[in-house]
Amino acid sequence: MIPLRFSGTTDVDAPLTDVWLRLTDPHFMARHAPTSATVRVVDERRFAVTGGFGAGTMRLEFTIDVEITDLDPPSHLTMKAHGKGFGSALDVSAALALDPVNPELTRLDWSAETGVGGPIAGVAAPLMEGIGKKLAEQFWKRVAEAIKGEVQAANA
User: Fold this and answer.
1) How many angstroms from the chain centroid is the CA of residue 156?
2) Domain-by-domain residue ranges, the chain?
């Protein structure tokens, strides 16, 4: 497995409770994934996501089982995920920490440790860290914009 680490901070123009509500909704999160994904909720802490992951011209479909392993509403959660697809594997450990900067702004600190193995890792290893970081940053920016839009629409 090729280990990858990503982290960053994203400011969300929405109150803490609205941000938390959406970050803990697997369907909301899947709608903003880098590729289209479907979600099957197993229970309140586990769900499965089916979607794709690609590097360069290579793309593999994955089914990823996700479990929320540490939940401290509304400020912190950690997740573990394991995915498989066409001889490849993906393991992720992610942490999210929310901090209310003011009543209308929430700071989201995120980090993830990922291991990718199989054909995609062997072919795209030199590109994976840069692509992964870019995808993660784009994902959290999309999530922040979507939360802001939903909250503004609800308050209009």
Assistant:
1) 28
2) 2-155
CATH fold for domain 2-155: Alpha-D-Glucose-1,6-Bisphosphate; Chain A, domain 4 (3.30.530)
Amino acid letter for position 26: P
**Rounded to two decimals, what is the model's pTM?**
0.83
CB of 116 closer than 8 Å to CB of 124: no
User: Beta-strand (E) ranges in 32-85?
Assistant: 38-43, 46-55, 58-72, 76-85
47, two tokens? 């769900």
Handedness of CA 113, 139, 104, 71 (dihedral sign): negative
Instruction: Tell me the C-alpha distance between 60 and 88, whole Å.
Output: 8
CA dist., res. 47 & res. 80, Å (int) = 11
- pLDDT per residue, tens digit, the chain (156 aa), is 778 888 999 999 999 999 999 999 998 988 877 676 789 999 989 999 887 655 556 666 778 899 999 999 999 999 999 988 777 788 889 999 999 999 999 999 999 998 877 766 666 666 667 777 888 888 899 999 999 999 999 988
Assign 30 to helix, strand or coil.
helix
